[in-house]
Amino acid sequence: MLDQITKVHDESRQGEAFAPAAIEPNTYSKKFYIESYGCAMNFNDSEIVASILNEEGFGSTRNMEEADLILVNTCSIREKAEQTVRNRLNEFKGAKKRNPGLLVGILGCMAERLKSKLLEEEKLVDMVVGPDAYRSLPALIAEAEGGQKAVNVLLSREETYGDISPVRLDNNGVTSFVSIMRGCNNMCTFCVVPFTRGRERSRDAHSVVREARELFENGYREVTLLGQNVDSYYWTNEAGDETVTFAMLLERVAQIDPLLRVRFSTSHPKDITDEVLHTMAKYENICNYIHLPLQSGSTRVLQLMNRTYTREWYMKKVDRIREILPDCGISTDIITGFCTETEEEHRETMEVMEYARYDLAYMYFYSERPGTLAARRYQDDIPEEVKKRRLAEIVELHRRHSLEGMQREVGRTYKVLVEGTSKRSAEELFGRNDQNKVIVFPKENYQKGDYVMVKVDSCTSGTLRGTAVSE
Ligand code: SAH
Ligand code: SF4
Ligand code: F3S
Questions:
Q1: How many domains does the chain have?
Q2: Is 170 contained in some domain?
Q3: Strand partners, 464
Q4: Is the beta carbon of 41 within 6 A of some atom in ligand 2?
Q5: Band of the pLDDT at 327, cuts 50, 70, 90?
Q6: Do 426 and 403 fall within a single domain?
Q7: What is the pTM of this model?
Q8: Are 194 and 331 part of one and the same domain?
Q9: In the record, which residues are listed under signal peptide (predicted)?
């Protein structure tokens, strides 16, 4: 999916930064260059920003040197994510020297967390714009062009950008994100997101369906419904006579066309209901894939994290998923070395991994974030080398599970949605199966956007290889 994206770093889940393809540069009088870090929400927000800027006469460019405006959409999830951005800012200093009129703006979660402090700490920054303030970008740019530093970090209880059609930046023309909600009310103690993204709010269901339908009509074949916590989606219209839950929204999007695949990310285990699982089972085009962040396999640590479930409850949820959706792919997020975590509790995490046998896992060691509940309440007392050793252990365990999972696929046949040409060879295509596994196969006469039945012949730990078979 991120095939055409300029890869800059590998920090979080969708962990890649991109510079967009130029959009008809001649129709715009000025140019902006944008890089995005962090999660898919940020990538999608950059597409909203691109839409707002296009209206203002700014076209996007991939070439930083010809830009009038550089924007960095930032992530605060771990210290390293912020450091990556600060290092990148240093690299923009040369561009600013060569073009003194160049404006540099910081968007996203670091903007929200650090606010005007960022202007003091990073002298080259002209604008600081939080995730709910993108509509004010034209006014902020005007201010900055007038020589003022410009800041808007107001969080909103209503803003969903529901009426803005995102300009697709990473444009493979087949898969796309659609934001359905913003913010998070969960207050996991380790997490900065509730502070950087504000309160949870759900987007108008009709605008979600409209956007997904337009994508389908424009040739897209897969949408991923996005939110920090999608399964707590809950929208009521103004008259109060229409209420849409996440399961209902999933169903409405799935009904657009059987050829439109539907995915979603991310789900908090506490909110994945049977209603959602049954809706997934009912529609062939809702992909059998659930991201179910575990964080820790120890009930005591889960409590300290305020995750609201126990180890046993989580394992039962895994059982329930497998009962209703027997071939569902499950992925997870895990944090090692959270405050006071013991060796025994670390082993408990590995036991749950053995139980769930995740297809994919994003694993991190705990990084204390200023202002979070954990930073205020607990001591970050696990030495870094212990955190890293525990991380290495779970990474190794997961590597074994995912390789076993891939080996099990050899000999099976899957319906693959083709996303593009393989990076390795122009003679091969790549796509994903329902369970989100990447499959590479010889091109023959197939094209991007086709559904192809592919029999898996071999695998590595990350990729399945196969050949197209007739149905
Ligand atoms: N809303 C998403 C999480 C987004 S952040 C969800 O609940 O699934 C993605 C992942 O980053 C989290 O699931 C967690 O595993 C990790 N993470 C968040 N804060 C962290 C921190 N302070 N240190 C290390 N990892 C963290
Ligand atoms: Fe952070 Fe928890 Fe919200 Fe996810 S659910 S964004 S981990 S507070
Ligand atoms: Fe990072 Fe903000 Fe997303 S902190 S993970 S960009 S919500």
A1: 3
A2: no
A3: 439, 459
A4: no
A5: very high
A6: no
A7: 0.93
A8: yes
A9: none
